Amino acid sequence: MVLLKLEAMRSGRPSEEITREAVRAYLQDRPGKLPPGPAPVIPEVDHLLETRIGAAGRMAFYQGLSGGFYFVADLPKEEYAPVEERNRQFADLSLGFVGAAIVAISEALDLPRIATADRRDFGPLADAFALKLLP
Questions:
Q1: Any bridge partners for residue 3, and if so which?
Q2: What is the DSSP letter of 30?
Q3: Starting at the edge strand that comes first in sequence, how are the strands of the sheet with 3-4 ordered?
Q4: Where do the structural domains in the chain lie, given as residue ranges?
Q5: Are 9 and 44 in contact (CB under 8 A)?
Q6: Which residues lie below 8 Å from residue 48, measured CB to CB, with a gap of 6+?
Q7: Which of 2, 10, 12, 126 could disulfide-link to 131, CB 3.0 to 4.6 Å?
Q8: Where are the beta strands (DSSP E) in 1-135?
C-alpha cells in the first residue's frame, strides 16, 4: 500500500525531477486502488479544488470523503510529538506540519511508500526513514 502526498499534486516546482503528471499517471494506472490520503492535507486539497476547479470540485471531493471513496489516514494523538521532532530534525527543509505529519503517518501505519512529486523535501526524509518515493 502507498501513502499519497496529495499536496505534492499542486507543488509544480520547476526543479522537481518527478512531475505532477508522473504522479497523476502513476495513480491513473491503478484504477480503483486509490492510496490513503493523509488527513492533514484535506484543507490544502479543499483550497486547491476551490481555486482551480470551483465549488463543484469541492462538493465532489466532500461526497467522496463522506461516501468512503477515499481512505483517509488520520494522525493519531501520539504522533504529534514526532511531527514536532521531524521539524526540529529537518529544520533546514522547512517541512511544516503537513510534510512532517505525512512521515509520522507513514511510520505509524508502516507505509513506507509515498507517492509524491516533492523530491526536494522528501528526498532527505526518504534517506533518513527508509521511505520509498513513487513514482
A1: 114
A2: S
A3: 3-4, 113-115, 132-134
A4: 3-134
A5: no
A6: 9, 10
A7: 126
A8: 3-4, 37-38, 72-73, 113-115, 132-134
At 84-95, the pLDDT tens digits run: 999 999 999 988
Topology of domain 3-134 in CATH is Rossmann fold (3.40.50)
Cα–Cα distances in angstroms (integers) from residue 54 to residues 11, 21, 45, 60, in the given order: 19, 21, 12, 10
Q: Is residue 12 a contact partner of residue 20, using CB atoms and an 8 Å limit?
A: yes
Enter the pTM of the model: 0.70
Nearest residue to 23 (alpha-carbon basis) of 32, 12, 14, 15: 12
Strand partners of residue 38: 73
> 68 is written with which cell numbers?
468512503
What's the one-letter identity of residue 80? Y
Q: Which residues lie across from 131 on neighbouring strands?
A: none
- Local structure of residue 41 (DSSP, 8 states): G
Residues in Cβ contact with 101 at an 8 Å cutoff, skipping those fewer than 6 apart: 38, 40, 75, 79, 83
Predicted confidence (pLDDT) per residue in 94-127, tens digit: 889 988 999 998 888 888 988 887 888 899 999 9
Task: With both helix axes pointing from N to C terminus, report the angle between 42-52 and 55-66 in degrees, rounded to the nearest 10.
Answer: 150
Q: φ and ψ at 57, to 5 degrees?
A: -65, -40
